[in-house]
Amino acid sequence: MSYPRNAAAPERLAIGAVSLIADGTVQTSAVVITVRGQGGAEGTGGGTTVYGASGIVYYTPTQAETDFTSFAVIASKASCTPVAVTIITSASVTPGTVLLAPVTHTSAVVPTVTTLTNLPSIPANWLTAAGVAAAALNGKGDWNVGKSGYALTATTGLGNQTANIAGSVTSVSGSVGSVTGAVGSVTGLTAANLDATISSRMATYTQPTGFLAATFPTGTIANTTNITAGSVASVTGAVGSVTGAVGSVTGAVGSVTGNIGGNVVGSVASVSGAVGSLTTNNDKTGYALSATGSAALTEAYAADNVAPTLSQMLYMIWSLLSERNASGTTLTTKRIDGSTTAMTFTLDAASPSTQTRTT
């Protein structure tokens, strides 16, 4: 087996034992490795040297040292007998793989081939009528490519029929998944899809009272008299009267004649006629109470640049007119107690012509 050439991880070599000439002692240290590639010069080995238990020198060369058709490895030491091996390399960098040269190999065993490359082109007429011997396909099917002269005979076991069938079908056994397109007509009773015939069903059918009568039974939707049970989703048209409570009415009610016993939630556009009586309105939203002249107002002052209420405005005017103190360019007004500051103003001078509220 040849040695892989220029492999990234070269295989280890066993060179042999180096012995002392004087007494034959096998050396296990200080052995020098020299490598010489075919056509190259000798050089000290750059690989790895180890010693076996029996003193055999093992050497693993570098990748560059194996990049020759052959190379020699020499193990030597002063006063010792050197040993050497010559390695023949292969074209493959994979250990254990041999590449055959592009020449004829007689009696060579070729393993199973999965991919062929560099095949010659197929000769002209190789698979044409001119290239096939007469009667070469006889007995291999006797194919009639044009199908001329053939006729199909309807039998059982046609399998899935995807093309159109013209003419009549005597019977279909099994289920039909779907039918696309219109069915012109069905002759005969499709009894397989019915539990019993129509006539037998009608023989045991009991018609509800008034089902086809001129006047529907009392208590049904079709009857115009009272409905005493169940819910009605919606009513279109006028309702003569409703006896009992109505949960809610959505939408406008044209008119109500008679008394309304319960509450009316929401707004009432207008009331025509007299209102018998009104009970207390607990919701005071939108109402305002007017204080009489004898009721005391709550003292309060609006902040600067904030719109005051009526009572705040009155107190602010009172404070400015009756309880104020000027000191330099600052004017301070007091609350009713005469000591608590209500508002402050900035004057433009000791004898002011303008004043601006500060707080």
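Second entry:
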Amino acid sequence: MACALFASYSNADEPKSSTDPGGRPNGSASSTDPSGRPNGSASSTAPNIIVFFLDDSGYGDYAHNGNPTIRTPNISKLAQDGMNFTQFYVTSPACSASRYSLLTGRYPGRSGFGSWVIGPGAKQHLHPKEITLAEGLKTRGYQTGIFGKWHLGNPNQKNNFSQDTLPLAHGFDEWLGTNVSHDYSSAKLLQSDPSGSQPIKGYSVIAKNLPSKADVCASLTERSTEAAISFIKRNKETPFFAYIPFNMPHLGLYASDKFLGKSRRGLLGDVMEEIDDSVGQIRQSIAEAGLTENTLIIFSSDNGPWIRFQDTASDKKYGDTRLHVGYAQPFRDGKGSTWEGGHRVPGIFCWPGKITPNSIEQSPVSTLDILPTVFALAGVELPKDRSIDGRDIRPYLMPQAHKAKLPEFEFYYSWADNMPSAVRVGPWKMHTRIASQTGNNYGFTASRDTPLLFQVEQDLGERINRAGEQAKRVEKMMESLTAFETQVQEEGSFWNTQ
């Protein structure tokens, strides 16, 4: 089914044939690819892909970004062996919408979710017509697995326990992980299982009601790591895509006994140092399989830290969280906010032998750019029947081999309704509404009539409003914002074009 989605149509809802005009299966061009491999397999230069995607980890949670008491030697080694993007963005400051953009290369406003988080009882889920990283890579012969949190849909009565709610319907061959964040009372630890039927066909339940099972929650990082390593070992002879969305450091925090009480930073440090150890273990498994120079590793987080809880001494669900929240510094605010701290996250690309080590790239990029870049590396054609919002950033990663000049960075900061609250063009960021779960407006007000404007490469904390002195720039950025909103609304989502 995934291959058929890659044909180009002027109408996204037009029925898709199983063959192209030449009589071949859609997604194929000939019986062999340019490397001589059978059609549908990755070329000889296409790398394995590993994507680490943490939950609520801030820019300042890492040693290489200046944290003085959290040890992250393996993650920092990724940056040393590859490229560290100092201006790396996610489209949404919350979970489901951010993950949607990572996997599809599309802004959250195109998802049809209606909200930035899909709860376990929500009807909506990732639409089956969306094309994910996994689906695209499978057309080139990749094996695909997800090891960690899904949170892009959950089978329930509102969606008639749809098979389309979970990862196997979206290009993944196997999965071990949670359906939603582990703090939901109905959170489950699931695994793909050909003979299983819970909660739907093709899956089985390992544990239910996770907040009441501290031992299971404390094992989540380790379980994801072990499953990912097993997947790598089993697929070392074929190209693979491993998506590893760790549950942590989302509240509540849990670390295994091996790491509990070991970090100077306390429990948050324990959690981060266990994740760091997992990154090291997975890199070691790549090295032992002889795949180091044929594997691209990408490391990031779904949004900034949940600073809404940084001053909470007693919470019914999480307890005392004052020391359990990470760092967005030097940026303002965090998760749930369209200030920089909600959207600016770590961003590392490591591919030894291809990406120059110890590279620091200050040009802004985002998770939207991952799908176009990975598809280009694997020889997957971008779909033409929908908007793809990211860019192919190979000119940043491998400038000697890819000379094209990238267009100026234009980026839209989505909020709870999955529509923009701010826009960035080049180094300039304009807010048209202030959005923060903290309720703090930091002394500012913003609207379309009186927007805020910051030069965020000079003013990292968004302190000095420059709108009054940049009237023409504000006007032009407002035109871009309006045009983007109009285009998103006119194209709609697959949910409202059925």
